[in-house]
Design a protein that fits this description.
220 residues, alpha/beta, 7-stranded parallel sheet, 6 helices, globular
Length: 220
């Protein structure tokens, strides 16, 4: 389900890095590739409602993301939307990047909105995890729980390092529970990860973050 291109564009091609330093509402962000469809479905199926908004970028071709969003919505207690238009973020909802489109977060006054963005493949992918993570760092910064899961390559390692440096809490799925350990491995190698956990532990980490039990700014 990956879209690979010989050209490797940096996130700067689409989005300037302007890290947000203030306080805001919490955001949860998940990035994945190979093996991620089943892993994300497993995580979301174990989550209750009344959680902060969840943004998801899964490397997936155009045409397949719609059925994936429907599957997630069917088997998860939270409401799952594929992002084709600008949408205001709400509690108990997850937002999935559409195949062939990047997904970015933006702020208008006190509210956050997610929207699709056309553009070149960043870190060889569209949608790109790096683009999503960077936009979240630009919008909510340290108020984020960023999770990088199973997948081939290094997409997401740039954006999650920016979030880590800005004080966000960052998690990588461990090698044993990954189908492919590429994306988490690259993020760990960059020094961008607060904690490495197995797949079955990720729902609990999301709950801990939502309840304030994960310390924001893991290096403090």
């Amino acid at each position: 389900m990956m879209q690979i291109n010989s050209e490797k564009y940096h996130p700067d091609e689409l989005l300037k890095s302007t890290p947000y330093k203030g306080d805001s509402k919490k955001i949860i962000a998940i990035g994945a590739s190979t093996g991620g469809v089943d892993a994300i479905a497993k995580v979301l199926s174990q989550l209750p409602r009344d959680l902060p908004p969840i943004l998801i970028t899964q490397h997936i071709p155009e045409g397949f993301s719609t059925s994936f969003a429907k599957r997630l919505n069917m088997y998860s207690p939270i409401d799952v939307f594929e992002v084709h238009d600008r949408m205001q973020l709400r509690q108990s909802c997850a937002y999935l990047a559409a195949g062939g489109l990047h997904m970015i977060l933006e702020r208008s006054y006190s509210e956050c909105y997610v929207k699709p963005l056309e553009g070149v493949r960043i870190s060889r992918h569209c949608p790109s995890v790096d683009v999503m993570f960077r936009s979240i760092n630009n919008t909510v910064g340290k108020n984020t729980l960023a999770i990088i899961m199973t997948g081939m390559g290094d997409d997401g390692s740039i954006g999650i390092k920016e979030l880590y440096d800005n004080g966000a809490y960052t998690i990588a799925q461990d090698e044993r529970s990954c189908v492919v350990f590429g994306m988490p491995k690259q993020a760990i190698a960059k020094g961008a990860i607060c904690e490495t956990v197995e797949l079955d532990s990720i729902p609990k980490k999301i709950l801990d973050f939502s309840c304030g039990e994960l310390k924001r700014g893991c290096r403090e």
